[in-house]
Amino acid sequence: MSLFGVSLATLFLTAQGVVGRNFPFESAQLTQADARDIPAIRFGDKERAPPWDVTTPRCRAWPDSHDWPSNSEWKQLNVSLGGALLRPLPAASACYPGEGFNETTCRWLVNQSDRTHFWIDEPLSTLTQWPQGSTCPLTLNPEGSCTRGGFPKYVVNATTVKHIQAAVNFARNKNVRLVIKNTGHDFGGRSMGAGSLSIWVHNLKSFEFIPEYNVGRYSGMAVHVGAGMESWEQFNHMAANNIAVVAPGGNSVGAVGGWIAVAGHGGLTSKYGLGSDQVLAINIVTADGKFLTVDPNNHQDDLWWALRGGGPSTFGVITSVILKAYPPINVTTASLSFSVNPSLATPNTTAPPANANSLTDLTSFWGGVSLTYHYCTHIIAAGGFCYSYIYPLGNSSFSFTTSHFLPNTNFSAASALLQPLYTQLNTAHTIPVTLPTNLPSTPYAGNGRRTGASGSEAVNTRYRSRLFPSSLWRNTTQWATIFAATIRAAVEEGGYTFHGIGYSPTADVAGWPGVDSAVHPAWRDAALHGSLMEVQPLGLTAAEARKRDERVKGYVGRWQALMPGAGAYMNEGDPAEAEWQGRFFGVHYRRLVGVKRRWDPWGVFWARTTVGSEGWEVQSWDGYPMSQNGRLCRVVGEK
Question: So which residues are the signal peptide here (predicted)?
Fold first, then answer.
């Protein structure tokens, strides 16, 4: 639960002399006096940092190694944190003989936890388990013992900026690996790390509506959002204040932090831009332990640019963000679905059941899906958003579902826009779909009664993605060829689920200050974010996991061959992406490395595929692809 809840922000002069708009939890800061008697939490000096290409220490400290902090140092850190240092057991340890065993808890975790908020509020877990290394899978029939694997060694339950500053300073001064976690919506292993100290920002949930905010060329409404805020909470605040804010669509996704750091998309992306485009100010703890407000007026131009799109877990720990706010807006929604060969579907499939609009002809099915994706360009041109899945159901059975969201569009206009799609599906592909006669138009903010109580569980999903450029939609023949070779092949032959989101966050839509940021330029010309999703069984051996990894790379390779310059969304991308610097950051990468070296010359913040991360690697004990179960060490010869 939040320590402060909803509160009024105050203007406060920080210990480092930067004026910002702070929540009460940000006014509680580490001082030089606090750190004077505890060397391990003293502030850093970037001017005295070692050169970027230094080769020592070779690795981050490791439990039981000679440089691992002593028990007394950990106790001292805990005292400085006021008791906020945690050492939680893996949740699944309840299923294994040993310290955490509890049969009742184990059964609840296996059978009921996915209907609660448990995994979002758990300090160690993320919503995909493969980075942990499969050393403690959740099961009613465990084999062997449960070990921590890639889970952090210690967790700081951060409820003040002081907690974060002390943790950052301790990790830097004692050479301990540092990771950051909020909700665990982490599909790339960034919030895990064996032998690490984790900063858990989940309880920084303050919110403030600002009726008038002025910075640079912006004058208008804004909101101030704590780093632990979840999307469902933010939507409830929107409803309470009669406003709209660009926010993640998933209820339990963090509303700021990693979402805005790598662009961030939502239902209003085609109308108002990406999450990164909304940012007006950022409060952050940097690698030297100092707390800063970064905005267009504070003369940290390179950091201001980099924080918006240049990646998470790279430049510091965000504590709160000020975002643009808009007048309330209604959204008209239309859902469409159809399937093929539902009677042949494999029993007990985990995908949604086939629907009433069923076909028996694969050509008609795939033609209809291709047409629907092609037609999405009309929807995004109107400021809309297309959200879809294609599910393989087994035995040549497939299901397609999509929702079209149209902001500020009444029923008449929505019907006029969508009817040609339904007509073409009927006439060209004999798909028996009918546009509803009463499309619902509801407040984007909802009714203020959203909850985050269900729908989030710790599974084992791997993502691979691309931003499909708008040039692919120039004519239907070109699109049909691309669609068949990329999306259809991956689902029909590969058996992967495809998740497609259509939007158009152009530079014109981004406006100021979003248009001048580190967001990958590929976003500005994207018409579709496409992801391949594979839910891997728990308990795979390392060899089995590597085999699956190589198989999906073959299908992604086809995408790359047909879209050689396409970018990818890091938050739903592949941490094993071979050319990740270009895919995730594009032409901005070199400049971002310069910002990283200036603001974090020690390399305090590290996660795979983040800026500057190629100089380090996890020496995994288990051999799982991209596992975080191992010591973090320098790559010999890498500068």
Answer: 1-20
Is residue 428 included in any domain, yes or no?
yes
Same domain, 442 and 560: yes
Domain that holds residue 316: 207-324
Q: Is the entire prediction scored with pTM above 0.90?
A: yes
DSSP state of 482: H
**Helix, strand, or coil here: 526?**
strand
Q: Are 582 and 573 in contact (CB under 8 A)?
A: no
The residue assigned the tokens 């990164």 is 276
Any idea of the CA torsion for 629, 630, 632, 636, to the nearest 10 degrees? -130
Give the residue from 458, 522, 502, 570 showing the smallest Cα distance to 117. 458
- Specify the pLDDT at position 351: 59
Helix/strand/coil for 565: coil
The tens digit of pLDDT for each residue in 163-206 reads 999 999 999 999 999 999 999 999 999 999 999 999 999 999 99
In whole angstroms, give the CA distance from residue 637 to residue 615.
9
Q: What is the pLDDT of residue 6?
A: 34
Those residues with Cβ within 8 angstroms of residue 451's Cβ, 6 or more apart along the chain or in another chain:
232, 251
Tokens of 470: 């708008």
Interior/surface letters 209-223, b for 16+ CB within 10 angstroms, e for the rest:
bbeebeeeeeeebbb
Place of tokens 């594009």: 586
Task: At 149, list the tokens.
Answer: 């694997």
Residue 287 falls within a domain, yes or no?
Answer: yes
Structure-derived torsion over alpha carbons of residues 241, 243, 246, 249, reported in degrees to the nearest 10: 70
Is residue 351 domain-resident? yes
16 band by pLDDT with thresholds 50, 70 and 90: very low
From the CA atom positions of the chain, what is the Rg in Å? 24
CB contact burial 474-510 (16+ within 10 A = b; e otherwise): eeeeebbebbeebbbebbbebebbbbbbbbbbbbebb
Name the helix (H) or strand (E) containing 618: strand 616-620
- Residue 113's contacts (CB-CB under 8 Å, 6 or more residues apart) are 119, 457
pLDDT tens-digit map of 256-302: 999 999 999 999 999 999 999 999 999 999 999 999 999 999 889 99
Q: Which of 439, 429, 425, 431 is nearest to 335 (CA)?
A: 439
- Shared domain for 557 and 416, answered yes or no, is yes
Residues in the chain: 639
| Judgement on whether residues 489 and 392 belong to the same structural domain of the protein | yes
Distances from the Cα of 562 to the Cα of 84, 487, 566, angstroms: 51, 12, 9
- As a whole number of angstroms, the distance between CA 449 and CA 222 comes to 22
Three-state SS for 332? strand
- CATH number for the domain spanning 276: value is 3.30.465.10
Q: Which amino acid is at 318?
A: I
Q: What was the pLDDT predicted at 636?
A: 84
Are residue 238 and residue 364 in the same domain, yes or no?
no
Say if 227 falls within a structural domain: yes
Asked whether residue 532 falls in the same domain as residue 424, the answer is: yes
239 with 354, same domain: the answer is no
Interval 316-366: pLDDT, tens: 999 999 999 999 999 999 999 999 999 888 876 655 555 568 899 999 999
